[in-house]
Amino acid sequence: MLAQGVAGIVKDTQGTVAVAGGGVIGLSIAWRAATAGWRVTVYDPNPIERSTSWVAGGMLAPMTEGWPGEERLLELGVASLRRWDEFAAALADFGSSVVTAHSTITVAADEADVRDLHRVRDWLDQHNHCVTALTRAELRQAEPELARSLRPGFAVSDERAVDNRTLVRALAAACAAAGVRMTPHRVQNVASLHEDQVVVATGPWTSTLLSRMPVRPVKGEVLRLRKRPGSPDPPSATVRAVIHGRPVYLVPRPDGVVVGATQYEAGFDTQVTAGGVRDLLADAEIVFPGLSEYEFAEAIAGMRPMTPDNLPILGRLDERVTIAAGHGRGGILLAPLTADAVVAELAGAPLDETKYTDPRRFRNCHDKCDA
Ligand SMILES: Cc1cc2nc3c(=O)[nH]c(=O)nc-3n(C[C@H](O)[C@H](O)[C@H](O)COP(=O)(O)OP(=O)(O)OC[C@H]3O[C@@H](n4cnc5c(N)ncnc54)[C@H](O)[C@@H]3O)c2cc1C
Questions:
Q1: Can you give the pLDDT of all 371 residues of the chain as single tens digits?
Q2: Which terminus of the chain is more solvent-facing, meaning fewer CB atoms within 10 Å of its CB: N or C?
Q3: Within a domain: residue 253?
Q4: Is residue 170 part of a domain?
Q5: pTM of whole model > 0.85?
Q6: Final residue in a domain of this structure, among 274, 306, 338
């Protein structure tokens, strides 16, 4: 049989694949698998607007988001970042441009906050990742609307940010163009699906489907603030700050910024708290005082799908079931690498880049696997 892929590429079909979950991970896999010749069906009762992917900030920031001890996550993130320009260009046919920033700068409020930034900078240096120390004058020139009291950290010139909502819409359109079927059903049991291959991409809900997989939800709140006439323009780079020990970030959008993010262990709770909004607004205004003139457009909470070692779970559970979950705070960043890895896994040739993400590292988990 033949399938029509994007850009008119026609490939032999490889068989059928069910993808459980239509967030950024499931849609990226479905799109890439369909263009590789698989007949793909995505199962999701609430695709797009109920997903974690709809909430996210959209930073592609493996370096400024990194922390000493997380070397494997850093390398995985950098491997995915390298794929992002091509991934975004291929999506350009399916909506407006997804990229909203091309670099990240870091800033701090006090001396202890600067020490935190220097620790990350030195660690990145040790691992041969190129960062540029900033002076106050350079910071002011790059982002004149940031508060004068801030202490400069460093800049990373090739970290990107994307509009996560434009992204998931473009992925859905790319899937449709590649012939992916969308089925609005919750998968209750992997064994009941009739496709040849099954990919589980159910984000923070993964352990409700595969109880042996230790993916837990970690709540995070973000704000969307919209520029009003006469208010200062949003920053052109993503700004990551440490404000008296608390991290906050501002991610540019064409019409404003996303401010994030809180972090709590709160199970499947996605209610926005007054305290979360207060802290985010207070810290963001210390970084960018002009934000007080912006429209308060939205406050929303989602759940990061976290694993015990903060690495995603990517690989085969058995000859029919592959898992792509547990992307934690970096699922938008890791989408292109994950899609490539799953398509390679389906073809029987796993990528070397994902050697540390094997689900079998959790084989000593006590509960039985439902697959
Ligand atoms: C506040 C916040 C800020 C973030 N910022 C960033 C960032 O700046 N950069 C970054 O890279 N990442 C960020 N993340 C992390 C990122 O959003 C996630 O890692 C990513 O969205 C996970 O994608 P996913 O497709 O695995 O899960 P989801 O997007 O949650 O999608 C899972 C889908 O599975 C469906 N589903 C669940 N159970 C079933 C079932 N049984 N059958 C069928 N379907 C099912 C759900 O309906 C859902 O649509 C952030 C997260 C949060 C919460």
A1: 334 443 334 355 689 999 999 999 999 999 999 999 999 999 999 878 889 999 999 999 999 999 999 999 999 999 999 999 999 999 999 988 999 999 999 999 999 999 999 999 999 999 999 899 999 999 999 999 999 999 999 999 999 999 999 999 999 999 999 999 999 999 999 999 999 999 999 999 999 999 999 999 999 999 999 999 999 999 999 999 999 999 999 999 999 999 999 999 999 999 999 999 999 999 999 999 999 999 999 999 999 999 999 999 999 999 999 999 999 999 999 999 999 999 999 999 999 999 999 999 997 654 444 43
A2: N
A3: yes
A4: yes
A5: yes
A6: 306
Contact 48, 227 (CB under 8 A): no
**Which domain, by its residues, includes 141?**
104-157+217-306
User: What is the 205 CA–ligand 1 centroid distance (Å)?
Assistant: 9
Residue nearest ligand 1's atom 33 by CA: 21
Q: 188 with 330, same domain?
A: yes
What's 267's domain CATH number? Answer: 3.30.9.10
Whole-angstrom distance, CA of residue 74 vs CA of residue 57: 18
Choosing from 266, 281, 306, the residue where a domain stops is: 306
